[in-house]
Amino acid sequence: MGLFIDSIDTPALTRSDLAELLFERVGLNKREARDFIDAFFELIVSHLAQGQETKISGFGSFELLSKPSRPGRNPRSGESVAIPAKRVVKFRASAALKNRL
Fold it and tell me: Regarding predicted confidence, which is higher, 27 or 35?
């Protein structure tokens, strides 16, 4: 069973759009659909917060990377500044997703 998005008016796919699709195509009521979407994203976030990679078969994987601090430059003044270390999420599309695109 595939969910095909035919008519999304905005360029961004929102949580409420996903919940509406679950309501229309799967038959969940709106509250259940919203709760499902919230639980789905919370699960991904909690796995990433624990440092675990999250893979969704046929879609891709989310991975948490640590970027070290590095020197940078203010483009307006040319002054050197230190860019602090940070953690970022990297998404890697699966082969199945790449083939569909």
Answer: 35
